[in-house]
Design goal:
alpha/beta, Rossmann fold, four-stranded antiparallel β-sheet, 14 strands, 37% helix, globular
Length: 305
């Protein structure tokens, strides 16, 4: 009997899960120790709950989504999912339904907003409708960089991935150009045709529901861009300039949160491969008209080449 009472006592004092914050090096998900309700939440006795996101960072790949969610998590009113969920774009995940999606969300307090980020959402044609069906009033964050720079970052990621796996890779020139012209079959180019994908999103969401973050400015000076994000999300002003410091070794801004400093993973901010000026010029010319169409769609311009 004594052993039984001791076991019950230990069970009662176990620490409950706490709201999640994304970490540059990842971390274990909160344990599934709670039961689902019928209102899109999963609650825990300590007052935290898992809830469907009120904010989604929809893209774009190599636009700065990891930096954005890390910076957004500096705000105490935000609880961020640690991993890319790929619920709306991967059929194998979508078929599991919303209970599975909910289980991927962090534990948060009732007054916190939950955010997840999956960069592939922006360029997936089926995603806008699916997200709208879940919540037509959701807030969407889209972070974009100069289309040419984004293409080069896209190639750089694949290049290093293949290098680490001792796989062969193609020189960037042979991928970008085919028979003397821009290779329209290169998927990375399609991802940088922002107006094409934005048109699809605007069929389901008003422009007022989508905030476009300038990824190039976020790299150069993150604080002003994050203040715009706070205003869009109607968050109490909390993120300040002291949350950012420039790391000369890494060459980009890192974060300072309650005295703790952290930087993005070493895979971020890698140098791009050298590209012949003539090929770069072809890229700039290729994106000139698509960029103009995007500016017209969103009613603002960006300092893209």
């Amino acid at each position: 009997m004594a052993a039984l009472l001791l076991g019950l006592l230990l069970f009662a004092i176990q620490s409950p899960p706490v709201p999640s914050r994304p970490m540059a090096d990842g971390g274990p998900p909160s344990p599934p120790t709670s039961s689902p309700t019928d209102n899109g939440t999963t609650s825990h006795p300590n007052g935290t709950l898992q809830q469907l996101p009120q904010i989604i960072i929809i893209g774009v790949r190599k636009g700065g989504t990891r930096a954005l969610i890390e910076m957004l998590s500096l705000h105490s009113a935000v609880a961020a999912a640690q991993n890319e969920v790929h619920f709306f774009d991967w059929e194998s995940h979508f078929q599991k339904g919303f209970p599975w999606y909910l289980s991927q969300m962090p534990y948060a307090y009732p007054d916190q907003l939950t955010v997840e980020k999956t960069p592939a959402y922006f360029t997936s044609s089926k995603v806008p409708k699916r997200i709208h069906q879940m919540n037509p009033d959701i807030k969407l964050l889209l972070i974009l960089r100069d289309p040419t720079e984004r293409v080069l970052s896209d190639y750089t990621q694949v290049f290093y991935n293949r290098l680490q796996k001792h796989k062969r890779y193609q020189p960037i020139e042979s991928i970008l150009v085919k028979d003397g012209e821009i290779n329209l079959g290169y998927k990375a180019l399609n991802r940088s045709l922002y107006y094409v994908h934005m048109q699809n999103w605007l069929q389901y969401f008003p422009l007022e529901s989508i905030h476009v973050v300038d990824g190039d400015e976020l790299i150069r000076d993150p604080f002003p861009e994050m203040k715009k994000v706070e205003r869009f999300l109607k968050l109490e002003p909390q993120i300040n300039a002291s949350n950012f410091y420039f790391n000369k070794t890494k060459g980009f801004y890192c974060l300072r949160d309650h005295g703790r400093e952290r930087c993005l993973h070493d895979s971020k901010g890698r140098a791009h491969p050298h590209v012949a000026p003539a090929i770069l010029q072809k890229l700039y010319q290729f994106f000139h008209e698509p960029n103009k169409k995007f500016f017209e769609l969103v009613g603002r311009t960006f300092n893209w080449k």
